[in-house]
Every structure is written in structure tokens, then in C-alpha cells.
Amino acid sequence: ISCNSTLIEECALGPLNITSVSVDASFTAFPIALRILLAIVMMCMIAIGFLGNAIVCLIVYQKPAMRSAINLLLATLAFSDIMLSLLCMPFTAVTIITTNWHFGAYFCRVSAMLYWFFVLEGVAILLIISVDRFLIIVQRQDKLNLHRAKIMIAISWGISFCISFPSVVCWTIVEVPARAPQCVLGYTEFPADRVYVVLLVVSVFFIPFSIMLYSYLCILNTVRRNAVRIHNHADSLCLSQVSKLGLMGLQRPHQMNVDMSFKTRAFTTILILFIGFSVCWLPHTVFSLLSVFSRRFYYSPSFYTISSCVLWLTYLKSVFNPVIYCWRIKKFREACMEFMPKTFKILPKVPGRTRRRIRPSTVYVCSEQQSAV
User: Fold this and answer.
1) What is the CATH number of the domain that holds 203?
2) CB 3.0-4.6 Å disulfide test: which of 140, 215, 286, 318 passes with 81?
3) Is pLDDT larger for residue 304 or for residue 125?
């Protein structure tokens, strides 16, 4: 059931009075054992996504030292993942195990709007962070402060809402899950609906992916050039010292320790998030376009199976982000340990190897003395 030409009157008059829609017999659904397993896995994903992202938000809220611009953006990304886990994933889990949509046609459109709303917000935050890394490392301009971050977050919420809102007021095709475990964009031949779908997938994937890919390629090129420049300069310093020390100076130089660019570890973390975003969202983007433009694909017997796998992969990103935070960001990892009950802290805390923070312009050369370039 979709908001097409046969249901224009129903869409204009109000929500459809439908409480349950079953998967057609001609469509292939999962066996009952596999449906139960997928529902259990999705419930675990809901728990991990909620708890992990809630800890991220709690850390930024409770610790003043963590309230930087970048951490505020990460907390906003975590909040969007929390909302996605609570307001979208449970209904998908119920539909997977029962093969029925029990929540009405109007809530179908609401859930579709919420799904795209929180996804768009998460993508917008990743885009802001990527541009910020580009400005810092390539342009050497650190312009993102806490006040500007709050303004950009507010703007991103507004833009995400405006783009996702048409699906709830029947301005586009939204299918009650007869062929998918969640409300999806259905097949349509109306040009206006197809234009909206193209706008949606371009906003969610193609524009952010292109900008982030360009930013990271520029950053990697900058880091590579800086590494070559620093290495050549260090070699020249070593040769000048060898000429002064004579043959006794031809010993193996100490390991040179160079901080090639400030905040490069944060860049690596965001790069991993970008790779996760690409892997999780490229299949869904292709799936959405084929669903709307290809009648053969949309009405194929395998559509339910494909849609379930693709939707599961997009939800996996909500679980993926907090794991990356705790793995890559030491302060978040230490804060997570503080929030854990003492009964879970079995192993004693092992002091990590401290690494002195050095400025990008400082080079440690062969000798024990350091030289600033």
C-alpha cells in the first residue's frame, strides 16, 4: 500500500486505517528460526547502540574538560544514533519476527521520516567533522570553536528535518512493509516522487561521500608531503652533525620521533568512521534507487530478503560508532571505565606508555639535542 495514484484521496483525507499488513505469499521471507535469530541480534544491537552512545553523551555532559567542539559533534552523532536505536530499530525487529506491520499506516510514514531524519543528522555531523579536519590539517585553520559548533549543529538538525519531512505528509511514496521489515521508499513512476528520492539519496550519501573523500585525500597527501619534507630535513641535519663529529659520528642514529601534523590521530578516528559510513550506506543507497526506479527489482521475490539485510547493515553503524570511540579515543575509554561498576573491573589498570606531545614544527634529530625547524 503506497501513496500512489490510487490512494491520493486517502492521503489527502488522513492516515490510512490499517493495523496489520502481511508479507505476500509470493515473496520470500526468512525461516522462523532465522527470523528469531535476527530479532535477537537486533535487540542486542539496540542495547549496545543505546548504552554505548548514551555513555558518550554522558561523558561530554558530565565532564567539562570533554566539552570541546569536536566532542560536542561526536555527542550529537551519538544522540542521533540513540534516537535511531530507540525509535526505529525495535519496530523493525518486531516486523522481522512476525512478518507483519502492527503499527498502522500513518506510523509507517512517521517511522520512515524518523529513520531518514536521524540518518541525515548523523551524516551531516560526519561531514562537519571531516571539513574541520581538512581545514586544520590542510589549510592550517582551526576555525571551529564551541559556539560555531552549536550553530552548525542547530542548522544541521533543521536541514535534516526539512529533507525528511515530506515522507510523513504523503508527498512521496512510502510503502507499508508488505515487502520489507520497515517502511521503505516504494516503486513509483511519478517524476516528482523520483526527484525527491534522488534528492534524498544525494543528500544522504553522494554529496557527503564526495566531500569527505576529497577532504581525506587532501589530508593524506598533506601528511605524505610533510613526512617527506621532515625526513629530508632530518637527513640533512644528521649529515651536518656527522661532518662535525667525524667518523665517530657514523653510529646508528636514534629513532626519530616526529609529530607530522597536530590532531592527526583524531583524523584517523574520523577516517575510520567515514569508512564505516561508506560500507554501511553504499548498499542502502543502491537499494533505495533500485526500489523506486526498477519495478522488476521492487516486485521480485527476493526483495524482502535484500531489504532486511540492507536495513540491518545501516543499523549496524549505530553500534559501530561508540566502539570506535572507545578504541581510538583514550579519554573516552578511561571515562567508560569510570562508568563501569567496580565488579566488572577485574584486571588492574596498567599504566600506558606516555608519549610527550610535540608541536608540528618540532623535529627530534639523530643526537640527543632537539632542533626546531
Assistant:
1) 1.20.1070.10
2) 318
3) 125
